[in-house]
Amino acid sequence: MPPIVSVRDLTKTYSGGFTALDHVSLDIEEGEIIALLGPNGAGKTTLISTVCGITMPSGGTVEVGGHDVVRDWRRARDMIGLVPQEISLEPFSTVWNNVRFTRGLFDRPRDDAYLERLLRDLSLWEKRDAKVMELSGGMKRRVLIAKALSHGPRVLFLDEPTAGVDVELRRDMWRVVARLREEGVTIILTTHYIEEAEAIADRIGVISKGRIMLVERTEDLMARLGRKELRIELTEPVSELPESLRREGLMRAEDGSALIYTYDTRAERTGITALLADIHAAGLQLADLSTSNSSLEEIFVDLVKEDAA
After folding, report:
1. In a shared domain, residues 265 and 164
2. How does pLDDT run along the chain (309 residues), one tens digit per residue?
3. Are residues 129 and 94 in the same domain?
4. pTM of the model
5. Do 116 and 216 lie in a common domain?
6. DSSP letters of 91-153?
7. Which of 44, 108, 150, 303 has its CA 20 to 30 A from that of 294?
């Protein structure tokens, strides 16, 4: 089955000479959730805007559902829902009319039952007759999400959808995302909440300086780049590491109460057995052992640092 979104050698250079996208290629499969991570100015929003037909590319091609976003933009855009970062709504219109109007723009037949379910899912039903100007910032963002979903898109773009919103909205948002996924909707999101990407995304894409650094399945990325940390609690603190324990990956905790050993989960040998034997030989007594995996946030920071070097 061909990808539902296909980006080939996409570039975007603005009139001032700034290159926001530098030969980006990316395939997104139908029904998957992909999270795009990158620092501010990396090109995430430009990529989304170009796929959605808001920004014209300088070169390359983009297809959505087999439709070129430039030559066949009506059909391509018909498949897409977009929740932008900026809140832009008709302030004097009610919530219900905002959402119903957007559905009409896509030439969809009237379906009040569908819109009611949508508003209920986003905890907006009780506010359906309120004017947008009367809503809080979080409620306005809910209206943006409802508008993006009003025409039943097959591809949904979420550009920082939960930035600066309350916990309740984030919970409602991910509940809706889970339902959409079950219905086969493809979801592409950018987020600064890296724990969300790790929790819900099938794949992670990392963008830096307008280039795709990598796109991998979340679990594969964690396994390939992840590190594991062994924390060795001591019964008595040490002021410095004994000479016999000085090795790569081992450091003393700031207060000396523990030793911290970082190792590669993919390595054939971790070195833990030899380390524990050396600790015993050095006369140190263990109080406890615990392990933890490196987070996606640490991996992301390391990747961006490598790219900046």
Report:
1. no
2. 889 999 999 999 999 899 999 999 999 999 999 999 888 888 999 999 999 999 999 999 999 999 999 999 999 999 999 999 888 899 999 999 999 999 999 999 999 999 999 999 899 999 999 999 999 888 898 999 999 999 999 999 998 877 767 778 788 888 888 888 999 999 999 887 777 788 889 999 989 889 998 899 988 887 766 678 899 999 999 999 988 898 888 999 989 999 999 887 666 778 888 899 999 999 999 999 998 877 666 777 777 676 665
3. yes
4. 0.77
5. yes
6. TTSBHHHHHHHHHHHTTPPP-HHHHHHHHHHTT-GGGTTSBGGGS-HHHHHHHHHHHHHTT--
7. 44
